[in-house]
Amino acid sequence: MLLTIRYFAGAKAAAGVDDEQLSLPPESTVDDVLKLVRDKHGEPLTRVLTASSLLLDGIAVRDTKISVAGGRELDVLPPFAGG
């Protein structure tokens, strides 16, 4: 299964890329994906992820134990400043 992760704002800066594709086993969860990107990108992204919202195919992720099977995109949205 192939999943695209899109990073925005501070998450993009911490990851050093706009997006990336991960090949995952079919039983993978959002937690599994987050562990992979934390291991890959290290402490800067780990810090951003603690405050970020996640969207799986445009739908807010409230439970990171949900399966990403069938998902095509996971968006990482850090808090935005402004008004």
TrEMBL record:
Supply the Pfam families for this chain: ThiS
Organism for this UniProt entry = Kutzneria chonburiensis
Q: Matching SUPFAM superfamilies, A to Z? A: MoaD/ThiS
Name residues in a coiled coil: none
Protein name as it appears in the record: MoaD/ThiS family protein
